[in-house]
Amino acid sequence: MDIWPASFLSANMAHIHPELDSAVGWIPMTYNEPIMTTCKKCGKASEEIAEVLAFCAECIAQADEDTLAELAEIHARSRESFGLPARPPSAADGLQCGLCQNK
Question: How many CB atoms lie within 10 A of CB 86?
Answer without folding.
Answer: 12
